[in-house]
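Annotators were shown the component list below and the corresponding predicted structure, then asked to write short factual statements about the assembly.
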Amino acid sequence: MALSKVSANLVWVASSDGRIWCLDWTDGSGADTPFTLEVKKVLDLNVSQVQIGQTFEDVLLILEKTSHSGGQVVAYDRKALAARSGKALHTCDDNPHMLRSAGGSSVIVVATKNSVHIGLPKHKGKDVKALGSLQYQFFSFDLDDQIATFDLRLPVQSKKNSSRPTIDLTVGCARGTILVFTDVLAKFPSGASATTRKGSLQPRALHWHPKAVHGVKWSQDGKNWDFKPCYAQSLILSKATT
Amino acid sequence: MGLQTLLRTIANLIQGNYLISGGSEGVLVLWQLDTGKKDFLPHLSASIENIVVSPRGSSYAVHLDDNSTMVLSTAEMKPTTYVSGIQSLSFSDKRPKDSLVRRVWQEPDEISTSIPAVSNPTNPAQILVSTGNGQKSTLAEGNALSAPYLQIFDVESSQSVAKQAVARANPTDSRVTTKGYPIVEPTVTQVAFSHNGKWLATVDEWQPPERDVETLLDGSDSVADICTERREVYLKFWEAGQGGTSFHLVSRINEAHYTTKPQTVFDLASDPSSTRFATIGGDGIARVWSPKLRQTDGLAATGPEGENLWRWSCTQSIHLERTIDQEDGLDGFRTVVNASGALDFSEDGSTLFVAYGGSAEAVVYIIDTDSGEIRDKLFGMFNGDVKELKAISSCLVMLSDDLRVYNVVSDELHYGVGLKKMFRGPLPLLQLAVSRQSRSFALAVPLLRSGESAKKGTVSELVIFSIDDNQPQLVRTFPHLITSLISTKSSSGFIVVDSAAQVWSVGIGAESSMLAQPLADIQLDKDVSVADEGIPLRLTDGDDDAASDEEMQDRDADEEVEDYDIHPAVIAPQRLAEIFNAGPAFAMPPIEDIFYQVAELLISKPVTSSAA
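Structure shown to annotators:
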């Protein structure tokens, strides 16, 4: 289930049997007319806003189960949902179960049983003519523990290295550890899709939970949020003085 | 480069280098990554299932596994909004994350007992459902639930009203023992309202799990004996507060039924004509409980505001298994092995019907409530354990492995039905609710093959019989397991709660439908400016996906609702109550009429206020 990025009134809801609803939560409309996909099982759903042609559209990233332990990430827009055929972006085995994206689908992260797959777009941001032209390159690495949950964020990007976004990733594990990866892509060689084995990445481990971490999220503290307007103001001031 | 690093640090500061996490401990942990400092928000009401940070970062939404969501402000970590659906036991759609790793204790995936629930006679929209600290800890101990709370739930608005602890609860303790097992809490086994809704009687029971008493084994007793010796059974009487949202404990009876060890209270019945309750327990004694004015030095004691204070006590105890002609000439009570029992008052309160006895030899005792004398006995009415006994006008509905409807006045059996044959399987979780108004009763039975237990995917069947006819009036298969079946005092219908946390109403002449849905359709919730009602409706009205929603981003939407321009009309709650509490949902006038009535309130109100 995810909020639409295009309209604040719309909520996308996926059922594991392949029915997808686009509900207007303010008046309940759309509940009777789901889209139906022919899939084994919908494992997860994420919605991102992508500029296709001239307009911004909701693109649904759906993690579909394809076999006993395999799954694939498929992108759909409204047309593709109606036609029941989306654009497959990535296939992975080893029980994928969670999918998130950030920055208007500039990063897609899929968690399997104990590995993380990070996808970066091959296409250039603004020239997506149609859904079919979406293409991603995936990197993956393994962890020692089973993944229960994860979250990602894109901190302020430095302009120099815009082809490679900085991605901060945090993973909540089944044995209670929280792993924090800062700028997770820095260790990957640029170029062709690569797989790194565990050990080469040095995450920071936080351990308090005695059992599985059910939810973990990056957060901005309230106090720091108060900071933000001040920062904007000081920037303007510095412009004025120079 | 130096500037770059500096900018990055500032950006981090502004973005806040914090992590927030939660798990089954019910503790929200805030990690400050730069300093390694941790902040805790402990003692949430249930296991944390998911956390969402609002787009601007000003609040967290926390999804708990007791079907509730809390919105916290990030600055003070104080809750700003709390929304809860019905918290009765339900099956989760997803495999619990704690079971990804094999642990000492694995969460059971079956429901083995029905959930005690009752409808409030003064407010038919309210039901009280027994509940625990979230789904996982409620299921902590296979057969016995850990459910020390009663949730007061409004079925019309589909909102949780309050949650009241009625037994010893440990919400502030760690929920796991040092050996990794969950802490077992008492469970509410019986709950009943007095006829006028002013009093509530509850029975809660606790016994140590067998794994905890192994050290006490000395060879003379079995583990089960040691556990039952340490059983704690409390009968409690509560006075209903204003609006039925809170209950104050008036009397607690420790071990209302006791032989050499505390005995289970099999059944609790409320007199439909006067303020009193009756219980039957494993000691073979039926007890009648009544309130008395509390006195100090011969004067009636009063509370701080001059109100009368009451005390509940046992006013009659009727020994059932009395055997006078024993060899030693002493009055003795035959010990009954594997006893079971049930009881009910007749509609005018003059007679108490008690069924009690060992397996397959239970007897129905007909007792005059004035004198406490046993007037008559009925033999051979039960096949197997006594499950239920209810009185409807002059008939007794008796439930064991057979269903029998017996007329006590004409002394004849109306009909009998072999339930095992009818439902082709064993009968755990068999439930009975009677509607005295329509002289009918409902049975809820999970459809299981022998050897199966009620797991996810089990369906239940609801059958409604009239006392005059052995052909069911309604047979309906429900898509989920029925966990509670409740009769309402003011109507002829029933309320059904299932294992998907859905509430159904079953009534005569109306299609069985979810209660909240019509209201959601016409958006009454918005018109009466209770802005955040729309979401809880979806949480509970059974849309599987909404209820099991993982990402839960609609909470963010919820915040936006608060920013909405709220309709200026102010309506006194009692005006709405007049419209909506005219009867339970299934006996309500057409939804169109209700809509116009509410619309009228909204239209007329500004006029009156300007006149004032």
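Statements collected:
1. Residues 222-241 of chain A form the longest helix (20 residues).
2. Chain A touches chain B through 56 residues (CB under 8 Å).
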